[in-house]
Design a protein that fits this description.
- By secondary structure, the chain is of the alpha+beta class.
- It has 2 domains: 214 residues, 2-Layer Sandwich (BirA Bifunctional Protein, domain 2); 53 residues, SH3 type barrels.
- The chain is built from 5 helices and 14 strands.
- Strands 1-2-5-9-8-7-6 form a 7-stranded mixed β-sheet.
- The longest helix is centred in the last third of the chain and has 20 residues.
- The chain binds adenosine-5'-triphosphate.
- Adenosine-5'-triphosphate (ATP) binds next to strand 4 and strand 8.
């Protein structure tokens, strides 16, 4: 079934002020960056029924079957100082949705939302600084004072709604979905509406000078566990084994190695595996 998500926009806040629903695409992340160059408003959301090249982190793929799930990207133009909390906002919004259906979810640092240790959703954030629109007839700006304190960010959310994990055991080996956990299919537009409302609430909070860090920290399932942190590329990899102690004010994971040294690990750089 292909729902009409665009009708939701009238009832929503900043996030979801404009909703673009497309049947199929390569990646909603790419589409959202395309929207940026057309001057789309902050809060614009693009949602697709299916993606041929859904993006995860580090070039990984996000898979989904036709019209089963939520595959969306949200355009934001926050102050630079909010950058470190945007992935938190997205992850928390997904946990809110899961909780609203009575599911106990948690966040595997930094970007996986899990139920019973299985992956329900992944969130990513891509950003760039400076002006994001340059129409042909724009007046050249000598010193860009308007945009310097803001960045353009696209948040991507892949949330498994009616996905059947048994059909993708190779490409999504530890997946689950809302339907799989609840034993019944859900209306995607209801889930999507809840997600946008939750995103808007958390984003409004940080925009107004608040923080979501403590809320996010409370949902992290990684803390207190032994982890292996892998960085680098396929040619050269570095591995750190230790205990995930805490996160710092910017969301970096603090890992203590077996010699008692603390390492501050940023989300963009690594993959973390829990080892117990
Ligand atoms: P990992 O989840 O393996 O620790 P990661 O958090 O960096 O790595 P992401 O970039 O968030 O991974 O997501 C991509 C990975 O998620 C894929 O490599 C695949 O293992 C898994 N995956 C892909 N599609 C789905 C899906 N629909 N549901 C759950 N997991 C998926």
């Amino acid at each position: 079934m292909s729902e009409n998500f665009e009708n939701l926009s009238g009832s929503l806040g900043l996030i979801g002020c404009e909703i673009i629903h497309i049947d199929q695409t390569t990646s909603t992340m790419e589409d959202a960056w395309g929207l940026v160059s057309t001057g789309a408003p902050e809060g614009a959301v693009i949602i697709a029924d299916v993606q041929s090249a859904g993006r995860g982190r580090h070039g990984r793929k996000w898979v989904s079957k036709q019209s089963n799930d939520i595959l969306c990207s949200v355009l934001l133009r926050p102050r630079v100082s909010l950058a470190s909390e945007l992935l938190m906002v997205a992850a928390l919004a997904v946990t809110d949705v899961a909780n609203s259906y009575g599911l106990k979810s948690g966040i595997k640092w930094p970007n996986d939302i899990q139920v019973s240790g299985k992956k329900l959703a992944g969130v990513i954030a891509e950003s760039k600084t400076g002006p994001d629109i340059a129409p042909e007839n724009a007046i050249p700006v000598v010193a860009d004072t308007i945009h310097l304190d803001h960045i353009t960010v696209v948040i991507g959310i892949g949330l498994n709604v009616n996905f059947d994990p048994s059909t993708e055991t190779h490409s999504a080996p530890f997946a689950t979905s809302l339907a799989s956990e609840l034993g019944a299919n859900l209306d995607r537009s209801e889930v999507f509406q809840k997600l946008l409302i939750a995103l808007d609430a958390h984003y409004s909070k940080i925009n107004a000078g608040g923080t979501v860090l403590p809320l996010w920290r409370n949902q992290l399932t990684t803390l207190g566990h032994r982890v292996t942190v892998v960085s680098g590329n396929s040619v050269e990899q570095n591995t750190l084994v230790g205990t995930a102690l805490d996160v710092d004010a910017t969301g970096r994971l603090i890992v203590q190695d077996d010699h008692g040294k603390d390492w501050y690990v940023a989300a963009g750089e690594v993959t973390v595996r829990s080892i117990q």
